Structure formats: structure tokens, C-alpha cells
Amino acid sequence: MQFDTTGFRARYRASINPRYSAWLHGGFVFLFGALCIAFLWSRTEGIKSWEWLAVPVALLLQNWGEYKIHKNLGHVKRRFSKMFYQRHTGDHHSFFTYGQMSYEGARDWRVILFPAWLIVVFAAVTLASYWVLSHWNINVAALFSGTLLLGYLAYETLHACEHLPEQHPLSKLPWVRHMRRLHELHHARDLMHTFNFNIVFPLWDWIYGTLYWEKEGYEEGNKMISMQHHIDINRSQERVLSYLAVPTRWHEWHHYPVSIKGPSGVLSAGAHFAYTGGRAGHLIWDVIEYVPGQRWKARARGRYGLVMFMTYECSTISTKTRFTRTLEYRFSHLFGRLANRIFLHKRIEKDSADLLNNLSVVAEQLIPTSAASTPR
């Protein structure tokens, strides 16, 4: 069922205090942050070359913290961060969904920007870090703490740009356009808990393998790696496909442990489920085609830029059904491509062959012969 973003937006806007001022909200955040940065950096004097290293170290730490807090608090419900989870996953991801990413008025900043009081809390933390580090080196303390605050403001700025209307001049800037696309993919409801948690620079998404890129209107192309296997099963086409297109029963014929979280029964186009098992690890699947007795097709997305298409096809050969399984995949991440070139491709191909060999052994025990025993 498609989420009613329009209805949620109307309810959220109606709940905003009439006295709320988007310009006061944004203005306070950036003015207060800028004043704190100016204060901290004014403490420096005669900076030595090695002391400038505090700036990239702070940027790396801020980028890592952005990733971890977004992923582990913004998308995982925990008792101590319940308010943050509700504001982020509950409100922000309901207000902005894939295909509906643009704000429509200044009052929508209420659901884009962090609460105004948070910059005060963050500034207090950075001032505390300055006080601690200043006992060792005042220049390092000032540069490090001020850069952390700069990272906070960069987050607020770029995140706001990622929700600008597509035709806005800032949206056309190369880096904004790139990060806007990554953020739009993050807002897809089946991807938001798994991919693209960095907002300013996707360094830790790249390192942790959660960076996912997909061009608009993407479909499988010539660069996909493809492998195909088939077996003959003494059951009708309809029976074979109506069994194999039930992901919650895949564990019955897979030769390795499989865990499926999703709806039971045959899944038709538009259905989603999560898969854990085999070489691929954790995958997010969405079914893109189901023709009863003929074809079932799904797309998966996983770590290290993995995109996978799985097609099940059935045709009649003599008195049996020929089941053909076609797997197409590619990695956009360097680590994934290297691993695939060195060893992963051969293992995936072996697993695919073993999978159908295993099914050929148990198929006629598992696949029903009558409508009364159709799997659910």
C-alpha cells in the first residue's frame, strides 16, 4: 500500500504552531553557530602547520558521527532517543518520500531543520571539547571545536538544499545534485533503514558499504553480470511458479540458511521483502513482475552497491516444466567490484548451480500436485 504523503503533509502543517517563524528558526541556528565558530577561531594565534591537521580530523569525526547518529538513532527506535526517532523516521520520512522530496513553503523548514535548541546543546559540547583540549594546545582546541560546529551548519545547509525544488538554481550545482539523488534514494521507504546515511559527504557510507546509487529510470543494462541455470520438474507450470514465488518458503529448498521478513504467499509486483543469507548477506527486494505460471521477477539492493535482478521462468518441456533461474547483478562500489573479480563471481555461480541441484532433489516433495495443496 502506497503511503499517503499528501495527507501526512496536511496534518503536519496543521499541527505547526501559528507563531512559528521559519526565518527566525533558520536565522537563529546559523547566526548562533557562526558566532560560536567566530569566538572559537578568534582564540587562535600563530597557528603552526601541524596544528591545521585539527581541521580534517574534526571533519572526519563529524562526518562519522553524522553517519552513526543518523543510522543508529534516527532509524532504530531506542528508549533514550525516542523523540529523535519520531522526529526523523516518523515525521521527516513521512513528510518527504521518494518522488516527493521538495518542500513547498518556508514553514516546511520545520520538518527539515533540527530543533533550534539543538545548536545550543551541540555548541555546549564543542565548547566543552575546546576547554578540555585547550589544556594541551589552544590552537588545536579552537580549530577542532570550531570545525565541528562548521560541520553541523554544513549538515543543515546541504540537507536543506537536498529538499529544494528540482528547478531551483542551487539544485543544479554538481555536488548538490549528486547528494540530492543519494538522499532521494535514502527516502525510498524500502531503502531508508539500509542505505545512504551521510548527508554532506558519503565517506562512511562508502567505507561501511551502505552507499547506494541508482540513476533515475534505472533498469538492468549491458554491464550486468548474468548467469542462468535450469531444471525440469514433474509439476505444472502454475504449481512450480506459485511455489517458488513465495519467498517465505525459500528456506525449504535453499541449501544454506535463509531468513525472510515480509508478507507470506505468492508476491506480486509492488511487494517488498528483506532477505538475509548466502553470499549476498542482507538484501532489500522488491517484486517488479509476476505472470502466473510464466514469469516472476524481482530486484534486490545490497551492501557495496549491489544491484541484483532475479527472474524465474517456467515453460513446458514434454510432460514436465522447465524452470529457469536467471541471476543478473553488478556492484557500483569499488570493494564489491574487486571482491567479485577476485573470488565472489565463481562462488555466486557455484551457489546458483547448487541451489537448483538441491531443488531438483526435493522439488516433487515440496511442490503440490493439486490446487487444494497450493502453498501459502
Automatic annotation (TrEMBL):
UniProt keyword list: Membrane, Transmembrane, Transmembrane helix
Organism of provenance: Serpens gallinarum
Keyword Transmembrane: yes
InterPro entries documented for this protein: Fatty_acid_hydroxylase, Polyketide_cyclase/dehydratase, START-like_dom_sf
Pfam families per record: FA_hydroxylase, Polyketide_cyc2
Domain Fatty acid hydroxylase positions: 56-210
TM helices/strands, residue ranges: 20-41, 111-132, 138-155
This protein's name: SRPBCC family protein
